[in-house]
């Protein structure tokens, strides 16, 4: 029997230990791809996801075209009549597009609504970012079309401006007007409710109309950062433009927080809320685009 030196025995022992460790590692469950990354990749590959982004772009393009066309198309009306006309145009446009596109994207058509839905944990961060980009591009495209079609060079293209109020007052007015809109959106599309028997798009359109009737004399009524962005970009006029982002976004966030935490609490534990915020709802999308889940207008798909 051959003799082994202590050094050889130690080397053999270390080799056998390494083999055992390698076998145990191979037989043990391997770590999966980070769930958040997997969800984002699943959304990125989904046809339904890109259809939803396209719907936001198309919907925003038509919304801005129709509403701004109503705002600058007839300068013969008296001021009060013009304000009512513009308010109705904005509200009816939103109601129509929400009914048409709500089953595809939720028809947010407003970064403040998208941020509200994000804070309400109804969409993922990735989806919210893509929606807002699509909304801004649609607004810019429609504003460019209206710039070429406007009746006179003196038309302001529906640019939002402060009328006799300070920027701080403007932020407050925009915040409150947007608050009631986003609160309406979240409330009428709450899937836990069984008492909503009317039309969600109509209710949301009336909320948009109400916001315009209340705020149009003071700020021109933005309540939609993308709607304010398009005309400002085409006319290269960003005076006090920040007002139309800070006010509506704060209003949307406040509405979501108050509804979800005070008026109608939705999540019992904080980790569950954070999981939805990062990854989106579990049943948001199917990789193959075969999503059979039902949706409610202007809510997350």
Automatic annotation (TrEMBL):
It is found in: Membrane. The chain crosses the membrane at residues 49-72, 84-107, 128-149, 169-188, 200-220, 242-263. One of its GO terms (biological process) is renal water transport. GO terms for cellular component: membrane. One of its GO terms (molecular function) is glycerol transmembrane transporter activity. Keywords: Glycoprotein, Membrane, Repeat, Transmembrane, Transmembrane helix, Transport. Pfam families: MIP (PF00230). Coiled coil: none annotated. It is a multi-pass membrane protein. Belongs to the MIP/aquaporin (TC 1.A.8) family. This is Aquaporin-1-like. It comes from Solea senegalensis (Senegalese sole). The lineage of its organism: Eukaryota, Metazoa, Chordata, Craniata, Vertebrata.
């Amino acid at each position: 029997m051959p003799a082994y030196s202590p050094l050889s025995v130690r080397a053999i022992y270390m080799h056998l230990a390494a083999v055992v460790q390698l076998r145990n590692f191979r037989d043990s469950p391997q770590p999966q791809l980070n769930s958040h990354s997997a969800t984002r990749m699943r959304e990125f590959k989904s046809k339904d996801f890109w259809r939803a982004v396209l719907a936001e772009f198309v919907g925003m393009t038509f919304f801005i075209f129709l509403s701004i066309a109503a705002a600058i198309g007839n300068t013969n009306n008296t001021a009060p009549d013009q304000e009512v006309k513009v308010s109705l145009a904005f509200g009816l446009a939103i109601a129509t597009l929400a009914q048409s596109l709500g089953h595809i994207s939720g028809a947010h058509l407003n970064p403040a609504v998208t941020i509200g839905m994000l804070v309400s944990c109804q969409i993922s961060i990735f989806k919210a970012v893509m929606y807002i980009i699509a909304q801004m591009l649609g607004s810019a495209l429609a504003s460019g079309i209206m710039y070429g079609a406007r009746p006179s060079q003196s038309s302001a293209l529906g640019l939002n401006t402060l009328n006799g109020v300070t920027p701080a007052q403007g932020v407050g007015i925009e915040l409150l007007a947007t608050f009631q809109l986003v609160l309406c959106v979240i409330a009428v599309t709450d899937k836990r409710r069984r008492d909503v028997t009317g039309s969600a798009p109509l209710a949301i359109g009336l909320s948009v109309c109400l916001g315009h009737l209340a705020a149009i004399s003071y700020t021109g009524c933005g309540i939609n950062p993308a709607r304010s962005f398009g005309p400002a970009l085409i006319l290269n006029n960003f005076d006090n433009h920040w007002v139309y982002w800070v006010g509506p976004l704060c209003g949307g966030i406040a509405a979501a927080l108050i509804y979800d935490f005070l008026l109608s609490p939705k999540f019992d534990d904080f980790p569950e809320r954070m999981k939805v915020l990062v990854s989106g709802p579990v049943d948001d999308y199917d990789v193959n685009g075969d999503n059979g889940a039902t949706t409610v207008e202007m809510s997350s798909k």
